[in-house]
Automatic annotation (TrEMBL):
This is Nitroreductase. It comes from the Bacteria. Residues 2-148 form the Nitroreductase domain. GO terms for molecular function: FMN reductase (NADPH) activity. Its EC number is 1.5.1.38. The gene is nfrA1.
């Protein structure tokens, strides 16, 4: 991602993100554009040594943000602390941030840009929150690198629709579909041009969950004034 996107494009991306749906119109998210090269370098190192964070044209951190709601409730002498300390508040913020990010992604791709989500932000969530000077009731959900891709990646095969889309009730009989999908992804990974390997979707996802336990997340959220119940 050598070529830089311009400020007009950045504005268009932010406006696209803001046009996303929001539960109860909370708009419970904030987008931080990381422009300082040293700051991007520090975040790249903390987020799993991912160089494209600092090499990409633009890097955005999407945060769940309940602090605006907290301040407004105090001004009105309305106690929303029980709600802020519940799990639903962090879900609302994370969902709003995710919807905004996906809107930005669709807009970016329509402009011929490439994107890469960075979940590694949560690997060092305390340190990165300090770097970004996040206040109480705010936490980073993920990062998003946006820029002009040097090459177009091959499209990864998705789970067949029958394994994802169920009618009227949850379908528990999808093992065969997933097993077939496992073989589909093995063929994909072994035949792709770059970073080929003999693995399946299950190998990658299970190992990722096993490796990234992030067991300190609740303590961090509690420190931010959230998820105390």
């Amino acid at each position: 991602m050598d070529k830089k996107i311009n400020e007009e494009q950045v504005t268009e991306l932010i406006l696209a993100a803001q046009s996303a749906s929001s539960a109860s119109f909370l708009q419970a998210y904030t987008i931080i554009g990381v422009e300082d090269d040293k700051l991007k370098g520090k975040i790249a190192e903390l987020a799993g040594n991912q160089p494209f964070i600092s090499e990409g044209s633009h890097f955005f951190v999407f945060c769940a943000d309940l602090q605006r709601l907290h301040r407004l409730s105090q001004e009105r002498n309305i106690d929303i602390q029980p709600m802020l300390e519940g799990v639903d508040a962090i879900l609302a913020g994370a969902i709003d941030a995710s919807l905004a990010a996906q809107n930005m992604t669709v807009a970016a791709e329509s402009m011929g840009l490439g994107v890469c989500y960075i979940g590694g932000i949560r690997d060092a969530i305390v340190e990165i929150s300090d770097l970004l000077e996040l206040p109480d009731y705010v936490f980073p959900v993920f990062g998003l690198v946006v820029g002009y891709p040097k090459a177009k990646n091959e499209l990864k095969p998705r789970i067949p629709m029958a394994g994802i889309y169920h009618i009227d009730k949850y379908n528990k009989d999808t093992d065969e579909i997933i097993n077939e999908y496992e073989e589909t992804t093995r063929r994909y990974y072994t035949s792709r041009i770059s970073n080929s390997s003999n693995k399946t979707w299950g190998d990658g996802t299970v190992n990722s969950f096993h490796r990234l336990s992030r067991m300190g997340m609740k303590d961090y959220l509690n420190k931010q004034g959230l998820a105390k119940k």
